Amino acid sequence: MRKHIVAGNWKMNLTFDQANELAEQLMDALEKCNLNKTELIVCPPFPYLELLSDFGSDSYFMVGAQNVNDNERGAYTGEVSAEMLASLELTHCIVGHSERRLYYGETNEQIAHKVDHLLGHNIKPIVCCGEVLEEREAGKQFEVVERQLKEGLFHLSERAFGNIIIAYEPVWAIGTGKTATPQQAQEMHAFIRGLIRGRYGATTADDTSILYGGSCKPNNAKELFANPDVDGGLIGGASLKADDFVAIALSF
Ligand code: PEP
User: Fold this and answer.
1) pLDDT tens digits, residue range 146-197?
2) In what helix (H) or strand (E) does residue 223 lie, and over which residues does it extend?
3) Pocket of ligand 1, candidates 171, 235, 241: which has the most ligand atoms within 8 Å of its Cβ, to mutate?
4) Known catalytic residue: 97?
5) What residues are in contact with ligand 1 under a 6 Å CB criterion?
6) 3-class secondary structure, 56
7) How close is the Cα of 74 to the center of ligand 1, in Å?
8) How far apart are CA 56 and CA 23, in angstroms?
9) How confident is the model over 79-107, as a mean pLDDT?
10) DSSP letter at 86?
11) Which is the closest atom of ligand 1 to the Cα of 174?
């Protein structure tokens, strides 16, 4: 059966010293609690990946990147490849975050290439999908998410798809303090699972973890995670506070 996963996306925040301090606070908090079977993933900015990997090596949490380039290697100044991430022994990488789609024009086609490179290096992609406010107001959220998944992911074989984690993140809920209601989250997660079932069959659909992201906090995580098709969260702002992040992880 699928796993419960809580992943923290630190985005472009914190200096090296602050990242070190947050990692220490996280270790302290995790030492005192029992996460049961919930998997924890921390996705810091690129320069701190190795630092976090050192903290994560005793298995309280795994470490992921926030992005990867869609080429294997070469003359792409300032970019980071899946091969480089694999050489740091990272386990996960976020792909297609709405901030990448909106600010850097990332397309579903590029996302498909990124996913392929990551899987080629045994890194599990956390693939983000979700509609913007105008799309939801126009009732197009299902159409939008379906296209993102079909164009970004459904080229994969059933076996490859088994390594995918999906994060449904309604863009209007990210960093806005406006959370999707538990009903809205469940409705979309069930829809996504239905799409996976249609493409890959019931076993793969039942085994795929689908995370919710968008202003998930300690005070609303329990209600969101209580939904049958919500298997955890991708957490932005609240992952920058060790106690909040751990409280969310304990919300199952
Ligand atoms: C995110 O960026 O993936 C996110 C969910 O951010 P926040 O929790 O701050 O809304």
Assistant:
1) 999 999 999 999 999 999 999 999 999 998 988 999 999 999 999 999 999 9
2) helix 221-225
3) 235
4) yes
5) 9, 169, 174-175, 213-216, 234-238
6) helix
7) 31
8) 9
9) 97
10) H
11) 10
C-alpha span between 11 and 118 (Å, rounded)? 19
3-state class (DSSP) for residue 23: helix
- Contact present, 108 and 152 (Cβ < 8 Å): yes
Q: What is the rounded CA–CA span in Å between residue 189 and residue 21?
A: 35
pLDDT > 90 fraction of the chain, expressed in percent and rounded: 93
For ligand 1, atom 1, the nearest C-alpha belongs to 236
Q: So where are the chain's domains?
A: 7-14+67-242
* Element containing residue 64 per DSSP (H, E): strand 62-65
**Residue 155 annotated as catalytic:** no
In angstroms, the CA 154 to CA 129 distance is 13
Q: Which homologous superfamily is 7-14+67-242 in?
A: Aldolase class I (3.20.20.70)
